[in-house]
Amino acid sequence: MPTGPTKVDAHITGTVWKIEVKRGDAVTEGQVCVILESMKMEMPVEAPAAGTVDQILVKEGQAVSEGDTLLTLATPATRV
Predict the structure, then answer these.
(1) Comparing C-alpha atoms, which of 3, 5, 18 is closest to residue 55?
(2) Does residue 50 contact residue 69 with C-beta atoms inside 8 Å?
(3) What is the layout of strands, in order, in the sheet containing 26-27?
(4) Helix/strand/coil for 41
């Protein structure tokens, strides 16, 4: 059973084009949380699980690398 927040990571290297959620928002599994721009293409980053946005670790316009954590979610298993 997971013991920490669920991480939402960048799946490509690019720039944070738009953050679609804010801290405290409830999100569903598969919901778009962040849109990255890479090579003039917009790439959505989806929530891997349902939960509540706990922390947003990036800003719009920020460069990110593949694997960087963009935000964290408190999921029912991590809310204790």
Answers:
(1) 5
(2) no
(3) 6-9, 69-74, 51-56, 26-27
(4) strand
The predicted pLDDT at position 75 comes to 83
DSSP notation for 21-34: --TT-EE-TT-EEE
By CB atoms closer than 10 A (0-12, 13-18, 19+), residue 41 is exposed
For the chain, domains (ranges, CATH) are 6-74 (2.40.50.100)
**Per-residue pLDDT tens over the stretch 25-76:** 999 999 999 999 999 999 999 999 999 999 999 999 999 999 999 999 998 7
Question: What was the pLDDT predicted at 21?
Answer: 98
DSSP 9: E
